[in-house]
Amino acid sequence: MRKYGLLAVAVLFLAVVFSGCATTGGTEQAGGTATAAAAPTGSGNKVNLWNFESKTADGWAGNGKWAERLTVNTDPKFVKEGGFSLKIDAKGCKGWEQNIALNGGPFPEQFAKLASLTMDVYVPKESIKGMEYAQIFLVVSGSANSWYQVQQGIKEGWNSLEYKIEPGAIDGDIWKVYFVFNSGGTFSGPVYIDNVVGTY
Ligand SMILES: [Ca+2]
């Protein structure tokens, strides 16, 4: 029995040491010893937004001449998560194009509180051959801001994009979300999107 008692003391000691270490890495607290090293509330929670595992475009579609350009991809080369991704046939797309990919919801209730949105984008070499630059803007249209945009550049191969969202910028009803393409040249082929995740 005494052996177990010592073991318990050792475990307790380690727990105190580790919680002390964890505290120094996070918010600074005076004498952070045995307090629980919990993450600050309202940060680091994830919500899966669109992963295309429904074998549909998860509500994404183009407008006008882009209406038939969004489909589900099953080729594992262009999938980052699960078995499916979104294929956007961007052939002929140049300059600013906000009609290529739109989503009218419904959106999860956490969307308005997002601090960032991440997604994996695959760009085949031939799709952006000879292009000066290419970008995908995340645009959120809602009651807080009718047009809130954040940009990220894309290059050939896999791109791990993170869009930071300012506090309060989209905090209200969400009307529409866009992936706006912007490029210094003309796309010659598709772009693939997968694993769109929000952090709040
Ligand atoms: Ca997927």
Helix content: 10-25%
- CATH homology superfamily of the largest domain: Galactose-binding domain-like
Biggest β-sheet, characterized? 6 strands, antiparallel
How confident is the prediction overall: mean pLDDT? 86
| Unique ligands | calcium ion
Shape type: globular
Task: Tally the beta strands.
Answer: 12
CATH class of the largest domain: Mainly Beta
- How much strand content do the residues show? 35-45%
Ranges with pLDDT <50 over ≥5 residues?
Answer: 6-41
Quote the CATH topology of the largest domain. Answer: Jelly Rolls
Q: Characterize the quaternary organization of these chains.
A: single chain
CATH architecture of the largest domain: Sandwich
Total discrete domains? 2
Order of helices and strands: HEEEEEEEEEEEE
* End-to-end C-alpha gap: 47 Å
Q: Any idea what the radius of gyration is? A: 22 Å
Structural class: mainly beta
Number of helices: 1
